[in-house]
Design brief:
Length: 326
Amino acid sequence: MAAEKSPIALSNFFSNLFHNFPKLILTNLLFAVPLTVILGALYLLSVLFHWNMIFVMIFALIPLFPFYAGIVQVTSHMVREEESVSVFENFLSGVRNNWFRFLVHGIILSAATFLSYISFTFNFSENPLFDSEFLMAFRILSIIVTVLISIFFLFAFFYIPSMTVTFDIRMKYIYKNSALMTFGEFKHNLFAVFGLLILGLVCLTVLLSCVIPVAIIIATIVLAAVFVPSIVSFIVNSAVYKRMYVMMVDRDKVTDDIERKMEEKREKRVSNQTETDNFDMQSIINFKIDKEADPEEYIYFNGKMIKRGVLLKMKEDAVKKGTETQ
């Protein structure tokens, strides 16, 4: 059965990729605007103040990551195989609704990348301190720990962006669930890594085929501005998104604490504010909700997956408040 499913899944991946390829290019071009501005500004600053370019590239993740939310939002819709995916609308919605959380994600990812880089640089440097057998053993242990931590963060960030744009849950639960999936969904994580390796080999082949430095620079710019970020997100989401979605939506596998916290959060917002964060009162009043359906089912509203029962409660409170203000 597994042997039968793999070719089918691979065929679906390429079919979905080719079908959405023009939209992936458009998504990447939208991302290329802040990418060009931010990297250009950081490059000028690095020249003026003689900053290390490697450090500049690592910390560029912080201002760039909020815009990556737009890419993740678009590709998540593609992976769900939705027919009419509005690239421009979903990109802007992803950035607008998730910029702060993705800024935090960018800080954490940048810090983890920086520490990994420092650790690898130190451990692989020619250092006389490592001449003794004891310190050499410590060096090897440090390398192993660094590799494991780096893999952990890599796998976790397969889920963190997608979970953020899809589900309206607290940050600590995003990180908790993503951490659990780094181990629980190891096979799907390997699929994502394999896809990224193939993409890396394709990019490397393109760059190696360039015989002069100017051509290499032009090819790098084209790959970054037109293809790579959106295809990276598409590959990762294709490997892990559906499984992550099922794990989160299936109430038998979602902890009661997450559901309770999410519902308390929504009820508190409705009771204490004239309108909730990201939700306009009139839009929730006008939103049609089937009262007879399962209240525990997640439904899509304003870019997030919310429980039907929570939305019904929000709508009732919004109608009540609207009546009181008249």
